[in-house]
Amino acid sequence: VLIAVGRDACTRNIGLQTIGVKINEKNGKVPVNDEEQTNVPYVYAIGDILDGKLELTPVAIQAGRLLAQRLYGGSSRKCDYINVPTTVFTPLEYGSCGYPEERAIDEYGKQNLEVYHTLFWPLEWTVPGRDNNTCYAKIICNKQDNNRVIGLHVLGPNAGEVTQGFAAAIKCGLTKELLDETIGIHPTCAEVFTTMDITKSSGQDITQKGC
């Protein structure tokens, strides 16, 4: 049984209309600029209430901290809503950081991207003989920026742990060359990102015959 409990933006009865703060009438969420400022200059919004932003508690905490530092600490740092590591904790975890492929194409153009991907077989799956072509890893690189990694995706055991580690590298400007130069820890699932050599555009087979 799957129960999906959504989140409502309860903004219609708190007086925003009195001071002229605009909301998205479809979902009640509040549009803001890149500094979390609403259309009313002295009103800010952070967290799940933001229109078009991620509904994640750590994102809200980070955005609130940075907003306070900008307002009262002389900082100019803004919240990065793109390179946010996140995981779906299904029995086979899915983790991602950065752009999904479709949005990356919209943002940069397909001709400016190189996508590397592969299926992989976790070591712990070899003994029970579980399917060796279920887990998947993918990185999206910007060819116009030294093949910088702008999206990372992994479907497999402990994907959350894997994604959290690579998220820091992505924030530091991780490139495909740096991944290739990184020595992998064998046998781990994360090492698959250090050995990728098949591009999606090549159409080559990515199925695996061993771990």
TrEMBL record:
Top-level taxon of origin: Eukaryota
Domain Pyridine nucleotide-disulphide oxidoreductase dimerisation: 84-196
GO cellular component: cytosol; mitochondrion
The keyword Ribosomal protein is annotated on this UniProt entry: no
A GO BP entry: cellular response to oxidative stress
Family label: Belongs to the class-I pyridine nucleotide-disulfide oxidoreductase family.
Alphabetical UniProt keywords: Disulfide bond, FAD, Flavoprotein, NADP, Oxidoreductase, Redox-active center
The protein's name: TRXR3 reductase
GO molecular function, one term: flavin adenine dinucleotide binding
Keyword Nucleotidyltransferase: no
Organism: Donacobius atricapilla
Pfam families tied to this protein: Pyr_redox_2, Pyr_redox_dim
Domain FAD/NAD(P)-binding: start-end pairs: 1-64
